[in-house]
Amino acid sequence: SIVYLQPHLEKILDLTIQKAEALGYEDRIYDALLYEFEPEMKTSQVEKLFNELKTGLIPIVKAISNKLDIIDDSIFDQEFDEDKQWNFGIEVIKNLGFDFKRGRQDCSAHPFTTGFSTDDVRITTHIYKDQFKSALFSSIHESGHAMYDQGLDKKFNRTILRNGASLGVHESQSRLWENIIGRNKNFWIFWLPHLKKYFPTQLEEVDVNTFYKAINKVEPSLIRIEADEITYNLHIFLRFEIENLMLEHKI
Q: Could you tell me the Gene Ontology terms of the biological process aspect for this record (predicted)?
């Protein structure tokens, strides 16, 4: 419960503030921590960017919230064999370019990517028989991270330079593959026939337009990694604002 966790969270926050103070900053305390993830970026710059995005996104979310039933995604209200989901996901990310000779995929509670060199990059996904989209798009997302890591210059292996340019750049690659490519209609014009071979009973009568709309349905979620392309950024906005308030002792 939160009562049990509270003292531990308070200690973590206190240590984080001490770390930021030790690192030093000119304007906002968040700047010291932000630099570790996005070098040269300032809190004020992020706020300006997020405010611009919120101006456009929030009205869209409000408009869509009254029309959630327009898109029928009931094709996912059934069970999909977990082993078949796994095998299909492997086929997809292999074709996208993830090199299984220099990496692998396993299961975990939360999808992530880790690597030890450009020749050893590992990803994980999670699989639920009643949540088809979760495993596949997690695999595509993590393979985006992994392909970026596999493409780094090998001369930097075993050095502190064997990392991406920044976490922002890294996330741009994972979400490019997950959303711009993985949720694209042309992507599914190719892949839906392959998917039907794995799940003929569930998808035999489903056409590509129905499938395309279903995987792109906008629906608010309390879980960030399960969020759709429209509402995902709202999670980031909220976390950013709460983190700043906590660091500045405003909450």
A: proteolysis
Question: Exposed e or buried b for every residue in 74-110, given b needs 16+ CB within 10 A?
Answer: ebbeeebeeebbbebbbebbeebebeeebbebeeeee
Q: What is the mean pLDDT of residues 173-198?
A: 98
CA distance 225 to 141: 10
- Residues 166 and 39 sit within 8 Å (Cβ to Cβ): yes
| pLDDT per position as a tens digit, 26-83 | 999 999 999 999 999 999 999 999 999 999 999 999 999 888 889 999 999 999 999 9
Q: Could you tell me the pTM of the whole model?
A: 0.92
Structural domain boundaries, residue 14 = 2-69+236-247
Point out the catalytic residue in the list 52, 142, 204, 241.
Answer: 142
142 carries an active-site annotation: yes
Q: How far apart are the first and last CA of the chain?
A: 20
Q: Which residues contact 116 (CB under 8 A, 6 or more apart)?
A: none
Q: List pLDDT tens digits, range 87-138.
A: 999 999 999 999 999 999 999 999 999 999 999 999 999 999 999 999 999 9
